[in-house]
């Protein structure tokens, strides 16, 4: 149904826009703000801005390779049976 | 091949700009080290945004769907007459 598709599309755009704005604020704007401004309590320390994307990237790559490996194993098993 | 050369030259230009920023030390060092990670994350976000926008604007063509179902039924009947096993019915 096209309504479900449009809802998923809207959700994806909202998620991507929010991640982009939060990350932009985190990396570019917050370091230039004075340390006793109230904004700093909404953002984690700056080291996490490196750890979280790297961790997410590593998790994504490993999930992808797991998926590809499992598909290759399944196709080889099917070839051996037939 | 030309496309690969374009992409590689773009990557080389960006990394040269980044190394230049590192050497010139206009911006504090920690921010310059963060810049590639920021670019990669924003590229991923841009891809996700394009997927979401494309999903929202995808046309469904309901009349074409009905015509397609008629074509499928016609083809199934024709093949069954000729003796080919068509599968689920």
TrEMBL record, chain A:
Regulatory subunit of the dolichol-phosphate mannose (DPM) synthase complex; essential for the ER localization. Its main location: endoplasmic reticulum. GO terms for molecular function: enzyme regulator activity. It comes from Linum tenue. GO terms for cellular component: dolichol-phosphate-mannose synthase complex; endoplasmic reticulum membrane. One of its GO terms (biological process) is dolichol phosphate mannose biosynthetic process. It is a multi-pass membrane protein. Keywords: Endoplasmic reticulum, Membrane, Transmembrane, Transmembrane helix. Component of the dolichol-phosphate mannose (DPM) synthase complex. PANTHER family: DOLICHOL PHOSPHATE-MANNOSE BIOSYNTHESIS REGULATORY PROTEIN. The chain crosses the membrane at residues 7-29, 49-73. Belongs to the DPM2 family. This is Dolichol phosphate-mannose biosynthesis regulatory protein. It is found in: Endoplasmic reticulum membrane. It comes from the Eukaryota. Pathway: Protein modification; protein glycosylation.
From TrEMBL, chain B:
The keyword Ion transport does not apply. Keywords: Endoplasmic reticulum, Membrane, Transmembrane, Transmembrane helix. Pathway: Protein modification; protein glycosylation. GO terms for biological process: GPI anchor biosynthetic process. The chain crosses the membrane at residues 34-55. Stabilizer subunit of the dolichol-phosphate mannose (DPM) synthase complex; tethers catalytic subunit to the ER. This is Dolichol-phosphate mannosyltransferase subunit 3. It comes from Linum tenue.
